[in-house]
């Protein structure tokens, strides 16, 4: 290990942040809750393509990280609401800044696209033309 390398303990906060910011669904769920989608099924309306299973998984993960808080209302048996914690609100601001940065400076590499079957494809670099070797005399 070099002097500038981070130890495993020092990398842990970055890894959890990377898990949230690097996951398109987690960032989208945080953004939806920030915009007012506080009931369990509401974020699905704000996030195209997310399934109920993925939404619930991401909500559990965000709860575990302390970015989202769950409020059960005893008056109504099934009334649950989610809200961002102060840390989640800060993270939502960072995600919005990253989005603004991307809008200002579009990526050079093309974004993944969906095929008619729903699969995600990542554009590959164009292959270089084959060079023909000259025969040796």
- Give the CATH superfamily: Winged helix-like DNA-binding domain superfamily/Winged helix DNA-binding domain
| Main β-sheet, spatial strand arrangement | 1-2
In CATH, the topology is named Arc Repressor Mutant, subunit A
Distance between the termini: 52 Å
Architecture per CATH nomenclature, i.e. the level-2 architecture: Orthogonal Bundle
Overall geometry:
elongated
Task: From the alpha carbons, calculate the radius of gyration and give it in angstroms.
Answer: 21 Å
Percent in strands: 5-15%
- SSE string: HHHHEEHEE
How helical, in percent, are the residues?
A: 40-55%
Architecture overview:
With 137 residues, this protein is mostly helical. The protein has a single domain (10-105), classed as Orthogonal Bundle (Arc Repressor Mutant, subunit A), CATH 1.10.10. The protein is 46% helix and 10% strand. It has five helices and four strands; from the N terminus they run ααααββαββ. It has helices at residues 8-21, 24-34, 42-46, 52-65, 86-104; strands spanning 68-72, 80-84, 113-114, 120-121. A hairpin with a 7-residue loop joins β1 (68-72) and β2. α2 crosses α4. It is elongated. The model has no long low-confidence stretch (mean pLDDT 79).
């Amino acid at each position: 290990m070099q002097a500038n390398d981070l130890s495993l303990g020092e990398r842990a906060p970055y890894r959890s942040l990377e898990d949230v910011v690097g996951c398109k669904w987690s960032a989208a769920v945080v953004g939806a809750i920030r915009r007012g989608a506080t009931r369990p099924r509401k974020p699905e309306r704000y996030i195209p393509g997310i399934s109920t299973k993925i939404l619930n998984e991401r909500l559990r993960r965000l709860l575990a990280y302390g970015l989202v808080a769950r409020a059960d209302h005893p008056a109504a048996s099934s009334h649950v609401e989610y809200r961002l914690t102060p840390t989640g609100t800060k993270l939502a601001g960072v995600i919005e800044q990253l989005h603004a940065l991307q809008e200002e400076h579009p990526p050079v590499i093309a974004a993944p696209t969906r095929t008619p079957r729903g699969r995600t494809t990542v554009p590959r670099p164009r292959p270089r033309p084959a060079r023909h070797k000259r025969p040796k005399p």
